[in-house]
Amino acid sequence: MAAATHGANVWAALASVRAKNPLVQCIANYVSMDLAANTLLAAGASPAMVHSAEEVEEFIQIAGALSVNIGTLSPPWVEGMRRAIAGAKEAGKPWVLDPVGVGATTYRTKICQELIAMGPTVIRGNASEILAAAGAATEATRGVDSSAASTDALSAAKQLATACGSVVAVSGAIDLITDGRRVLRVANGDPLLQKVTATGCSVTALIAVFLAANPELQPLEAAAYTLAYFGLAAQVAVEAHPGGPGTFRAHFLDALYALGEETVTQGALVSEDPL
Amino acid sequence: MAAATHGANVWAALASVRAKNPLVQCIANYVSMDLAANTLLAAGASPAMVHSAEEVEEFIQIAGALSVNIGTLSPPWVEGMRRAIAGAKEAGKPWVLDPVGVGATTYRTKICQELIAMGPTVIRGNASEILAAAGAATEATRGVDSSAASTDALSAAKQLATACGSVVAVSGAIDLITDGRRVLRVANGDPLLQKVTATGCSVTALIAVFLAANPELQPLEAAAYTLAYFGLAAQVAVEAHPGGPGTFRAHFLDALYALGEETVTQGALVSEDPL
Amino acid sequence: MAAATHGANVWAALASVRAKNPLVQCIANYVSMDLAANTLLAAGASPAMVHSAEEVEEFIQIAGALSVNIGTLSPPWVEGMRRAIAGAKEAGKPWVLDPVGVGATTYRTKICQELIAMGPTVIRGNASEILAAAGAATEATRGVDSSAASTDALSAAKQLATACGSVVAVSGAIDLITDGRRVLRVANGDPLLQKVTATGCSVTALIAVFLAANPELQPLEAAAYTLAYFGLAAQVAVEAHPGGPGTFRAHFLDALYALGEETVTQGALVSEDPL
To answer: Which residues form a coiled coil (chains A, B, C) (predicted)?
Structure first.
């Protein structure tokens, strides 16, 4: 599929989000809740941060998708994650996992493995996290920062995707998205995204939004289109308002809110590797 | 009372907040803490986010009012809410309830009913939440977003106000505030407020501030004046700096901080329905 | 040591942070996580918000320093704090304590005393907090706001520093930093910092960053240089972009990110009292 076609598809997927205003349940972490909620609102979705074991199973019934993030992990939240995921699976709703910092501690890795075994629709992380999640990491991760080039993680991502039947997305200078067989690449983004906390968590939650609003797309495409839209908004923000991470965050949300058809269709840089 | 008089009263109430710098205890939710705290600081108050059952009753003794928000509910926080409210009532301090997402799950509705039965000074929500809180909802709420026009909620708000002896404020294009008998309307605001997470939670906490700083006002007026000031700041921000939700949030806080007497007196749009 | 020399040292310490990109573990509070993480990223460090008793001891092994903040205290977090501090001490890593609101409630004071007894490398608070922490407070604190001039707190700070073998930093119009014997003063800063929530928490976490990246410095100097850099960024932001607290927050992060050698060397206002 040519890049130009992908650009039109990214726009169509975004237009569907804006038209449908999907309600997405997020079990986010304490750091990322504010930006994740604002990202979803700017994109045209309705975020609901609901994490408690007392209500997650009931809430997923009225939501279009679920996003699970292990950033600030603790046992009560893990119990909420388990029940929400079980509810999503039973209801046939897509769910997305962000394995923040997996590999950094034994507890985090154990919980992550348990959640991965529940079969996420999409897993998104940086290269270190995907390497750790795939059991392919040869070095300890450094928390949430990526210390491995994303290209190194492609074989790990394919392994992981095949093993758990998920789409795996690896964020980096070039994002890689694979279902274990096909590989899409997204060349949008800006380095300032890494200077603002919770941008990774936010794009993961946004993948859940795109899945909810675009059930006719394959998760491989839905994830790639989300990353392209998100990265393109960063580029547009930086180009129109050069500055540091503080003002960038504001202009980035403005761009997510405002991006129009021509910009998206022409600016989204999605390509597919030959099989 | 004419709108012009209300404008002067909104200014007087705000001036009192800025002069007295009231300390207000907030049991906020994880998503809204940042914006709620910054809203209170910009308005001239001192926010204290204190939620733990171990200290809430003692803390309310030194605070001027209490704000309770059920956004990211869990059992330990509910216990903190119960004790803080009991402490506020015993000490004769006003307290405000934001029934975020009530009606979305059984747990949330049950807790909300329990807290409402404790007699909040003011309850503020969107139309869906007030309908659900009043037991008048005929459809499930969609989390924190409003899916019913606020005017539909007036009779529910009056019922709820009468039943629990509270003032009930319904946010919408036109805010409605009632004590069960009198009805005030506030026509300030901007649609961008709904594209920034936690603005509803923040205005609820700000009502607690206005109550603490203006004990001579009736809660009906204090709530309406808060909504007028908050909405007017949004209008001023949008007019001076048109843009998207990211930059709006920053300019909105600037406006809360800077609004002067003439702007408030002339811009606050408060009116009262004939009895 | 002359102020000019201190200016060069502040720059050298900041340059070391940017070069080494230290990973710092933060047990922050719910309100401050977003700004604290963004402050650390803007300064050139890697923040990791990890609080759970299940993993804090393991995580500190890969981190360069630990920051502990008691803002939104509850028993499970206190257990995480205890274990993280024990791990930091055993591993010889520096750790910093922010005694937010100590003195406001019995619970908060008790926990704070316990943590102080564990011997923080640096304690940073406002004058009220340091007075309370030193057991010298004659009035109840008002939560997180300072109601005593920082100069009043100098003798309390010296007492506290001597008693617990820590460096004590008192934020105010002029920051005071003491090890019980020497006293450094920092004259950087802007009043708008007090109109943005979590700036105090953020500078405390940033002290941990400077300690991690500058092991050759004494903690007295590392703390003072952090406060000078942080306050100078506020000045630069206000001078270039006068406004209110909303836009200030964004420009402040931009300034932390961008401050260059000449600005820091000439603008850092650090002086030492004669012994």
So the answer is: none
